[in-house]
Amino acid sequence: AQSVTQLGSHVSVSEGALVLLRCNYSSSVPPYLFWYVQYPNQGLQLLLKYTSAATLVKGINGFEAEFKKSETSFHLTKPSAHMSDAAEYFCAVSAPSGGYQKVTFGTGTKLQVIP
Amino acid sequence: EPEVTQTPSHQVTQMGQEVILRCVPISNHLYFYWYRQILGQKVEFLVSFYNNEISEKSEIFDDQFSVERPDGSNFTLKIRSTKLEDSAMYFCASRGDQGKQYFGPGTRLTVT
């Protein structure tokens, strides 16, 4: 079984401040981990993914995430928030190989960027 | 980059009607999925499909739902008799052997 827990359903940061969105995972096998972003009334866009290579993963729009096995975490960060980063962010997990690899999503974190 | 497409982008239907949501997965992919997202909630897995049969389904995917790959390109989700609570965004996804699922832009289903 696999699951993700996103801490904080809403996060507010000032423009230019550090963005930190927290995600902890649970998986019986080494996981694949993802962060998706969803803008209002739009679909899911993949920001970045961890697939057992480098533990620090760089994604689009200046975001990155670090896989920490000891903490079972995969927190998303961006050094300097931009107004255009306001959206909902979903952490997700899937099994790495074999099986049918359904993706299990977290409940999402809405990021508000304050000018 | 290849992409998954979905039609229509928005479907409005009356309660009790049948709807078919269509998806065109990436051409060389073998695994197909449907997810849904009720407004304000998280994205939930509905069903996975491989080798022309359902490989896994969630408890949401009851007898009112069915999936089909009628030809070599389309992947459809049918809801036989829609209920108000079926109103949601429905996402199709497909996967090759590389482990990454590509999601479509979604179909917003509104049941009135």
**Helix content range of chain A:** under 10%
Radius of gyration of chain A: 14 Å
- Principal-axes geometry of chain A comes out as globular
**Could you state the order of secondary-structure elements of chain B as H and E?**
EEEEEEEEEEE
Q: What's the tally of helices of chain A?
A: 0
Polypeptide structure, described:
The complex is a heterodimer of chains A (115) and B (112). Chain A is built from no helices and 11 strands. Chain A is an all-beta fold. In chain A, strands 2, 4, 5, 9, 10 and 11 form a 6-stranded mixed β-sheet that branches. In chain A, strands 1-3-8-7-6 form a 5-stranded antiparallel β-sheet, with no helix packed on it. Chain A is globular, with a radius of gyration of 14 Å. By secondary structure, chain B is mostly beta strands. Chain B is 0% helix and 52% strand. Chain B contains no helices and 11 strands. In chain B, the strands form 2 sheets. In chain B, strands 2, 4, 5, 6, 9, 10 and 11 form a 7-stranded mixed β-sheet that branches. The mean pLDDT of chain B is 92.
Summarize the structure.
The complex is a heterodimer of chains A (115) and B (112). Chain A is mainly beta and 115 residues long. Chain A is built from no helices and eleven strands.
Record the SSE blueprint.
The complex is a heterodimer of chains A (115) and B (112).
Chain A: E1 2-7, E2 10-14, E3 19-27, E4 32-38, E5 44-50, E6 56-58, E7 64-68, E8 73-78, E9 87-94, E10 104-105, E11 109-114
Parallel strand pairs in A: 2-11
Antiparallel strand pairs in A: 1-3, 3-8, 4-5, 4-9, 6-7, 7-8, 9-10, 9-11
Chain B: E1 5-7, E2 10-13, E3 19-24, E4 31-37, E5 43-50, E6 53-57, E7 65-68, E8 75-79, E9 88-95, E10 101-103, E11 107-111
Parallel strand pairs in B: 2-11
Antiparallel strand pairs in B: 1-3, 3-8, 4-5, 4-9, 5-6, 7-8, 9-10, 9-11
